[in-house]
Design goal:
Family: Belongs to the ferredoxin--NADP reductase type 2 family.
Number of helices: 6
Number of domains: 2
Helix content: 10-25%
Shape: globular
Strand content: 25-35%
Order of helices and strands: EHEEEHEEEEEEEHEHEEEEEEEEEEHH
GO molecular function, one term: flavin adenine dinucleotide binding
CATH class of the largest domain: Alpha Beta
Largest sheet: 8 strands, mixed
CATH architecture of the largest domain: 3-Layer(bba) Sandwich
Keywords: FAD, Flavoprotein, NADP, Oxidoreductase
CATH topology of the largest domain: FAD/NAD(P)-binding domain
Radius of gyration: 23 Å
EC number: 1.18.1.2
Organism: Metasolibacillus meyeri
Bound molecules: flavin-adenine dinucleotide
Length: 350
């Protein structure tokens, strides 16, 4: 019985991490399983981006936000496993058996799916030999701005991520050029305007057709680009190449046939704003869940998480309080509050 959890959260992105916190708040024995080495989900793709749209939170870098989410998730000491992909879920009476890629089995009374849109990986540049530059100057995410200071940068892609990076890098880079295969960028028009104002050079109908290495063959020194309208090509010396061509998705978890979940397409599960899915005992939160009025943003993941955990609580204990609880009403915080206040008093008296 010791190894049976009240809830097993699958996915350690914002929805899963906040669910782990909230589930501790509701007194549930909690396990979280994440397939990647690092917790943080999609926010790990934008560690240097300033996030402005989390209510009451000053603009915060993605990397810092992830650290805070992880710290909060650990408040009630849930069991957290990383580098462990959940492959298969089956049900035996009232118990779910969760099988992982490591051949382990985990047992849980309920499941909270927080798997985002599945396991995602960036779409790679399809030029021969491109992968060998991934260790040097070919990037699929911007992990640190420092690297791009005073550099000649070319960004391939026309979506929001590509243009956001162009806007953020242009004040520190020597030059930023965006090349995009279609006639018009697909990013939000306000961001495009910002990019133009920031001096980003934008070349539509243009693709990178060749990468030429430096003499040591360690990094890209020249890129050749071709314009599909004029059929003209040019070769330019660059320091860094950023590719933002979107993401591949892998539908990650399989279910026993007795567990029939309603899917919107290959990736998303239909459910309710309460986090319930059509299968009793399986709940969902964050980007994986769809319902009318869904908000596919960080703030949406938090509301989903609280709702799903409250639904889990009443599924396990039908007489439990159904709705959101304010933290001051929770006995579990009393001791933690006392210690925080004491520390603040000591600090103030110095
Ligand atoms: C480039 C970019 C910029 C963004 N900017 C903003 C912004 O400024 N503001 C904002 O509010 N939102 C932003 N978003 C959206 C926000 O990041 C997502 O809404 C949020 O990350 C969704 O969280 P999630 O936990 O539902 O899913 P995810 O973040 O996708 O996390 C899901 C986790 O589940 C894990 N997982 C999947 N399958 C399995 C499995 N089988 N076993 C174990 N683990 C598994 C994955 O590895 C992943 O860690 C942005 C998104 C992107 C891509």
């Amino acid at each position: 019985m010791q190894n049976i959890y009240d809830v097993t959260i699958i996915g350690g992105g914002p929805a899963g991490l906040y669910s782990a916190f909230y589930s501790g708040l509701r007194g549930l024995k909690t396990k979280l399983i994440e397939s990647q080495q690092e917790l943080g989900g999609k926010v790990l793709l934008y560690p240097e981006k300033l996030i402005w749209d989390v209510g009451g939170h000053p603009p915060v870098l993605g990397g810092q936000f992830v650290k805070q989410l992880i710290e909060q998730a650990k408040t009630f000491e849930p069991t957290i496993l990383t580098n462990t992909k959940v492959d298969f879920i089956e049900r035996h009476d009232d118990l779910f058996i969760i099988r992982t890629s490591k051949g382990e089995q985990h047992h849980s009374k309920t499941i909270l799916l927080a798997i985002g849109g599945g396991i995602i990986s960036p779409q790679k540049l399809t030029l021969e030999g491109a992968e060998k530059y991934e260790m040097t100057n070919l990037h699929y995410t911007v992990q640190s701005y420092q690297r791009f200071v005073d550099k000649e940068i070319i960004i391939s892609g026309g979506g929001n991520a590509a243009i956001d990076w162009a806007v953020e890098l242009s004040p520190i880079a020597k030059n930023v050029t965006v090349v995009y295969r279609s006639e018009q960028l697909s990013a939000h028009e306000a961001t495009i305007e910002e990019a133009i104002k920031a001096g980003v050079q934008i070349e539509c109908n243009t693709t990178i057709t060749k990468l030429t290495a430096n003499t040591e063959k360690t990094a890209i020194q020249f890129v050749t680009c071709e314009n599909s309208q004029t059929q003209q090509s040019y070769t330019r010396q660059i320091d860094e190449v950023i590719v933002s061509h979107g993401y591949n998705r892998e539908s990650s978890v399989e279910f026993d046939e007795a567990i029939a979940l309603s899917k919107k397409d290959d990736y998303y599960f239909e459910g309710k704003a309460t986090g319930e899915t059509v299968h009793p005992g399986i709940f969902a939160a964050g980007d994986i869940l769809t319902f009318e009025g869904k908000v596919n943003l960080l703030i949406g993941t938090f509301q989903d998480a609280a709702n799903a955990v409250n639904s889990i609580k009443t599924y396990l204990e039908p007489s439990a309080y159904r709705y959101g609880m304010v933290s001051s009403h929770n006995d579990l915080f009393k001791e933690k509050n006392r210690s925080i206040i004491e520390k603040q008093l000591v600090k103030a008296s110095k």
